[in-house]
Every structure is written in C-alpha cells, then in structure tokens.
Design a protein that fits this description.
Layout: E1 2-3, H1 5-8, H2 14-21, H3 32-42, E2 47-53, E3 56-65, E4 69-74, E5 85-86, H4 90-103, E6 109-115, H5 120-129, E7 133-147, H6 151-157, H7 161-176, E8 180-184, H8 189-203, H9 207-210, H10 218-234, E9 237-244, E10 247-257, E11 260-268, H11 277-292, E12 296-301, E13 312-323
Parallel strand pairs: 4-6, 11-12
Antiparallel strand pairs: 1-2, 2-3, 3-4, 3-5, 6-13, 7-12, 7-13, 8-9, 9-10, 10-11
Helix pairs in contact: 3-10, 8-10
C-alpha cells in the first residue's frame, strides 16, 4: 500500500513497530521521529516513496545527484544511521516500486543504509538485485553502544578503575560547587519548546555555540526542535539539565526506542569545561535509564571519547545499487 508521511507520523505506526522489532543497528534512527524530522528540516521539497505491507515498510526519498543521476536514497541521507527497508516484506515493496518506475521509463540508482553484515536483509538485496544492478559497498557507518545489564553499577564495573576514580572525584567537586540535576520529560509541544529553548541557551555558551557548529545553527535547530516535538507525543524524549544557583550550565538529551536509549546531544557552559560535566551528565543519564529498565545505551557515531563509555561496536554497511547497462530494471513477470 502506498502511504504518505502523515500516515506514519505517530509513535505506534507500523513503521515504528518494524523499526523496533526488526533487529536494527540503530533502532531509534530508523523511527519516524528521526527520519521525518530530517525530511522536514533539511529536504522539505524532496519526494518521498513510502509503502507498507503486512510484513514490511519501505521509506525512501528521491533526489538527483550530479554525476550519479536519479537516485532513491534513505530519508536520512546525512548520517545514514537508519535503514529504509524494515521487515521481511520490505524487499518485495522495493521490487514493486522499481517495477513501477521502470514501466514509466525511469531507471534509478538505489542507496540502502543500515545494512548489517550477516543479516537476512543483505542476502535478500544481493539475491534479488545482483542480476540487474551493480552493487557496491559505498560506506561503512560505525556506531557505539553500551550494555546496561546490571544497571549503573554493572555499567561502571565494565569501565576501568581509573575511569571510575576520576568520575567519583569529578562528582565530589561538582557537588561542592552546588551542582544539581533536573530531569525533564516533555509531554506536549509547549513543554518540548520550553525544554528546547533551555538547551539552546546552554548550547550558545558552549564551545559548539562559540564555534557556531552546534544545534543552535539554523538547520540543526529546526531538526532538533522537530525531533523534540515528535518525541513529546509519546513522552519518549529524555533531557537532563545540570544547574548551579538556579541556572542551567549543561544538558544531555536523547530518546527511547523500546528498551534502547539513543543519545542525541549534550553541551555545557564553556566555563565548566574543566569540571568533567559531560561525564557527570552521562552518569546521571545512566542512573535514570537504570530506573526505567532500559537495556542498551546507543551513543551514535564512533568517536574517541565514546570508547570509555561503550564496549559494543556495530558496523553498518551502506550499499549503492546502479542499474546495469542494457538490463531491464523491472523483474520478469511471473510464469
């Protein structure tokens, strides 16, 4: 069935159910809150191709690239964290879309992100399309995660003794300076916007704001505001503010996808750069997640500082499919 974005733009949509149960490397970023916020903020005029069946969901966007030509790509073509083919029936939906386009004389390249080596989706793509497409591994996106088995104590037990010692020392110093934490779960657009404004105010005092490379920049601000509002519909957003003397000096923000928490952003006042405030915010977030029974903390793309916090490395492939010259794109008719 052909669908539109509003058909899926709610927390319990079939798209989101498939994202949660189909074994994704980054399940949060497969969801509509992430995907549709990217479309809204960065590519509002891009045409979407959305389809669903009883066993799958297809979510692709259409764009023409110089030197590459017409291309069907993931809606998240910026970070490539999510997968546009969700569920066992997604490749059948893709076959149908490509056949329709071929019948209209349209030959398109195809980009599929979030493909896990050794998982059925990769085998399905290779088996279904190798005769008609040249298939390349265009990129590998690596993300980092941490198990929350055993709660905060279990998590810290998997970190080094030096790491734990420094964290305890930082916590004592911050407490002596009057640092406290405030948890926020927005439940509607007004609460979301108020929370987002507080995060932006902190961001502008951080090195990201000073260097003009954070989420206070126009497009990033639109994206994270839209993401925050969508998370507020189900109350899946999680924000913590670090405060001193009734003033926000730091924040950490992310969202839930079933039993998985996905971190999004954290920032702190540059005046607190020597106080390990980022680490303290992470620890407070982990304490909250333990209380909620969350099983995994996804920290997003691989970066050096995340190695101290994570022990799980997930490599997701991005496949580029280009139609072979002189080969029909449409599959042969049955019989």
């Amino acid at each position: 069935m052909i669908c539109s974005a509003p058909d899926f733009d709610q927390p319990d949509s079939s798209w989101n159910r498939e994202a949660e149960r189909s074994g994704q490397g980054d399940p949060f970023c497969c969801r509509t809150e992430w995907q549709l916020s990217i479309q809204e903020a960065f590519f509002p005029r891009r045409r979407l191709h959305l389809r669903e069946s009883a066993s799958g969901v297809l979510a692709l966007a259409e764009r023409k690239y110089p030197g590459l030509g017409p291309t069907l790509e993931p809606i998240d073509c910026l970070w490539l964290f999510g997968c546009p083919l969700l569920g066992e029936g997604a490749t059948d939906l893709l076959e149908a879309l490509l056949a329709e386009r071929a019948s209209q004389g349209q030959r398109s390249n195809l980009i599929v992100s979030g493909v896990l080596p050794g998982e059925p989706l990769r085998d399905q793509i290779l088996r279904s399309f190798h005769a008609r497409y040249d298939i390349y591994r265009a990129k590998t996106v690596v993300v980092r995660s941490a198990s929350l088995e055993g709660g905060l104590d279990g998590f810290l037990g998997r970190r080094s003794a030096v790491f734990r010692k420094r964290l305890r020392q930082a916590a004592r110093r911050a407490e002596s300076r009057g640092l406290v934490f405030e948890r926020v779960v927005a439940r509607n657009a007004a609460e979301s916007d108020a929370c987002f404004d507080r995060m932006l105010a902190v961001e502008k005092t951080s090195w990201k704001g000073i260097d003009r490379c954070g989420m206070s920049e126009t497009e990033s601000s639109r994206f994270y505001k839209a993401l925050s509002r969508r998370l507020a519909v189900s109350g899946a957003g999680r924000a913590i503010f670090a405060r001193v003397d009734e003033r926000d000096v730091g924040f950490i923000f992310g969202g839930l996808a079933g039993p998985v928490y996905r971190g999004q952003q954290f920032s702190y006042d540059d005046a607190w750069s020597a106080a390990s405030l980022g680490n303290l915010l992470q620890q407070e977030q982990l304490r909250w997640l333990e209380e909620e029974g969350i099983l995994r903390y996804d920290m997003g793309p691989e970066m050096e500082y995340k190695h101290h916090w994570t022990e799980i490395r997930t490599a997701m492939q991005v496949l580029l499919l280009r139609p072979k010259s002189g080969v029909r794109v449409a599959p042969a008719s049955p019989g």
